[in-house]
Each structure stands twice: as structure tokens, then as C-alpha cells.
Amino acid sequence: MKPIDAIVARHAELTAIRRDIHAHPELAFEEHRTADLVAGKLQEWGIEVHRGLAGTGVVGVIRGQHTADAKAAARMVGLRADMDALPMQEHNTFAHASTVPGRMHACGHDGHTTMLLGAAQQLAQSRDFAGVVVLIFQPAEEFGGGAQVMLEQGLLEQFPVEAVFGMHNMPGIAEGTFALSPGPVLASNSEFKIRIQGKGGHAAMPHLAVDPIWVSSQIIPALQAVISRSKSPLEAAVISVTTIHAGDTFNVIPGECMMTGTVRAYTKDTLDLVERRMGEIVTGIGAANGATCTLEFNRIYPSTINHAHETAFARGVLQGMLGEGQLIAQAPIMAAEDFAFMLEKIPGCYAFIGNGDGAHREPGHGQGPCLVHNSSYDFNDALLPLGASYLVHLARQWLAKSE
């Protein structure tokens, strides 16, 4: 196997779709134009369309023609792509750069959506399979947990898929290469707020105050001891304090300090340990300094954990498509992904498609690296036929296999 010739022939059409989406980025749960574009293309290709899950979500249903028996005809497999952009300013100036100030497709969701559209068009035209392919165009991956919302609003009840597959582009991995592994591949994402209530006073008389900034300076390094001394060195986790807010002027000790940050981990046991130790440290250091310190800890996304069987299946599909050295193991990374919610409910696999080193970018790109969440990023359009073909082969072969 290789990229499907009919999809390769439509490369220019897919590129135009991807660049149109890139030029019109929309944030979480605001993907109205993008959803309209997706639904319009699916309807144009004769695909059954369902809208309304998570507000702007779109689900397409393609029923195969090879239905030898009722059991085969009822089988379903899910393919998922995300549609939302990020609240950041694009520094690229090429023709398809963002037309919306402060909004940018800096993570490649425009490419993910287009690859699934390319697969949808091919599957709809051929329908050379038994069973049903469910196309899940999900809003709000970056903020808001759109996958979780779709699940809560009945995604699986309406479309009871046996397995679900997703894909993300990965800068730094060579173009034409895929990476996937079983087990944890992306971390859980938790957010925390630490409020330090001290006692304000004159900066020249600190003994009459309880300085919350001084307390914060003790808490920050103590939190890092959770990583180096409380958990097993064989278990990965990250604690990052990312904001500190306190005070208004140079000669006043403020009464309060607020810190926020993120925690990443691969296992629930490690996350439980980190949360417990953070609470003990925050409370204890506050009490030792005469301050009242509280920790608010919110678990946002769980860890993305690929199922062994589905990952082996996806690897087998890719082995039939790729050349020697183009299929590699994916080392776990500490970024998070709300596809994790789907993998908690349904067996599946999340793969990574190499986006290259940025050499694909046209004149007019920003001077920064072509990394996700970077203002100079752009999805590599050369990937569109390969990614779409992978999704087509994946769906066909899944529905053809014995249960």
C-alpha cells in the first residue's frame, strides 16, 4: 500500500481547504464557520451529517455497501479530528495567514480536520467496506474538553463505535514518518491555584507584616522537591509555577499573593501523590510563616493511554503503507490531549504524523521555529494525502477484520 492515488490527485483541493481553515481560525466552542465548512463538504459528498454535539461538533456517518450480513453492517469504527485554534497572534505573513487578530491555527488542527475530510471523501465515493465509519469532528480540544462534552452529550450512545482512532502532527519528526506506541503517550493536565494570605505592611518594617511574597519564594522550590524526593524516579511528573501576582508598588508589602501553574503526570497514582504532597507543603509552609495558604487543584485532562490491541492494529496498517524507517516508536511527552477522554471510554490509538523541520514553510513565515503553539508554525500540506490515506486504510481494514 501507499498513499491512495485518488487522494493524491485531490492534493490541491485538500490544500485549499486546509489553508482556508487556517486563514479563518476559531476558538473552542466557537468553530461555527469551520463546522459549516465541514458539514457542507460532507453533505456535498453524500455523507449523512449530524450536528449539535458540544455545540459546534460535526459527526459524519458513512455506511458501507459490502453488507453480507446484519452483524457486519452494524459494526462501527470512529475516526476523530479536532477543529479549534489558539488565542495567539500569528507572525506569518504568507497568503493563508490568519485573518483574525489574536487567533491562530498554531497546533495543526486545520490539517487534522482536512486529513479527515480527505478520508471522508474517499470512503464516501468507494464505500467498499462492510459496516459504518463514524467521522468525529470535535470542537474545543485546546480549552474546554470538547471530547468530554461530546461524550457527555451522547456521542457513544448515538454512534456506538467499537474503537476510535486519532492523529496529531509532530514537528521534529521527519515528513512521511509516523510514530506510535502502546500505553501512555501524553500526560494528564492539571491546573492549580495557590492563595497565600499574609498581612500587609510597610516594606521598611517587615517584622510587623506577614510577607506573602517571601512565603511564595519558599513554596516554589519546595514544590520541586515533590518531583525529586516524594515520587519514584521511575515515574514522570512535572510541576511548573507559571504566574505569580502580588503587590502594587515598591514600598508596600502586600497582604496576598496568588500563584498558578500546571501539573503533568502519566499515571493516576503519581498524580494523587503529587496533589497530596502539594497540599501538605502549601499548608505547612504557610503555617510556619504565620500565613494562611490554600491549594485549589483541578484535574483537566487525563493521560492519553493507547490500547495495546488497537495500537498494534494501527501499526500493522502503517507497516503496509510506509517504507523502512518511516514507522518509529513514540516516546511519551508531557503535553496533554483531550482525546484521552475518548480512550477512557473506547479502545483506540492516538498516532503522530511527522510534520518535518519547518522547511516546507513558504516565504512570509515568521522567524521562529515551526513548533506547535508557536506564532511561526504552519501545518505541512505535503502530509495531507498520506494522513488521509492512513485513515482510509485504517477504517477499511478494521471493519474487514474478524471481531
Automatic annotation (TrEMBL):
Keywords: Hydrolase, Manganese, Metal-binding. Residues 191-282 form the Peptidase M20 dimerisation domain. One of its GO terms (molecular function) is N-acetyldiaminopimelate deacetylase activity. It comes from the Bacteria. The Mn(2+) ion enhances activity. GO terms for biological process: diaminopimelate biosynthetic process. Its cofactor is Mn(2+). The keyword DNA repair does not apply. The keyword Manganese applies. Mn(2+) binds at residues 107, 109, 142, 168, 373. This is Amidohydrolase. It comes from Lampropedia puyangensis. The lineage of its organism: Bacteria, Pseudomonadati, Pseudomonadota, Betaproteobacteria, Burkholderiales.
